[in-house]
Design goal:
single chain, about 160 residues, 9 helices
């Protein structure tokens, strides 16, 4: 496609015809992660900026969906899963299994290309962290977070998320 190899990376810079042509020529993979786990990771990466997880969550809620960081914005607002038909959706916590499948579908030797991933350890660690961090939040913050991420929770199977009702 004539503009396929330009420096522009945002789809919004292209017209509808160009977007349709580009998206039709790619295999589209979306990596998703429980929004509460994304919040925890963002907090841990910015340690020292907020005195507590609860105050960090309040800053996230106060900033809103449109002014937020890509690190914790709702996925639906970033990836447009209702508009873009993704070929694969890969869930964090099942990376080894899902990436292996994706590599095999692409005709690549999955075993030699995959890094060592211990999904069960990652899931256990985030479950423990989620319990600790969730207990720091007020009932109002929990309710607001569930509302803030409501579209992510509806669009993706995060059934064991602490934010699910």
């Amino acid at each position: 496609y004539r503009r396929l190899h330009t420096r522009e990376t945002r789809l919004s810079k292209f017209n509808q015809t160009e977007i349709k042509a580009m998206l039709g020529s790619y295999t589209k993979v979306l990596f998703v992660r429980d929004p509460f786990h994304r919040l925890i990771a963002s907090f841990l990466q910015s340690m020292g900026i907020s005195p507590s997880f609860s105050s960090f969550v309040q800053e996230v809620l106060d900033s809103g969906v449109h002014n937020g960081s890509v690190a914790w914005k709702p996925l639906v607002s970033l990836c447009q899963p209702c508009l873009i038909q993704y070929d694969y959706v890969v869930m964090f916590g099942f990376l080894r299994q899902e990436l292996g499948h994706l590599l095999r579908r692409a005709g690549l030797p999955a075993v030699s290309l995959l890094p060592e991933l211990t999904d069960s350890q990652v899931q256990w660690t985030y479950r423990w962290l989620s319990e600790q961090m969730f207990s720091e939040l007020s009932a109002q913050q929990k309710k607001q977070l569930s509302h803030f991420y409501r579209w992510d929770l509806a669009a993706f199977p995060f059934s064991s998320s602490f934010l699910s009702d």
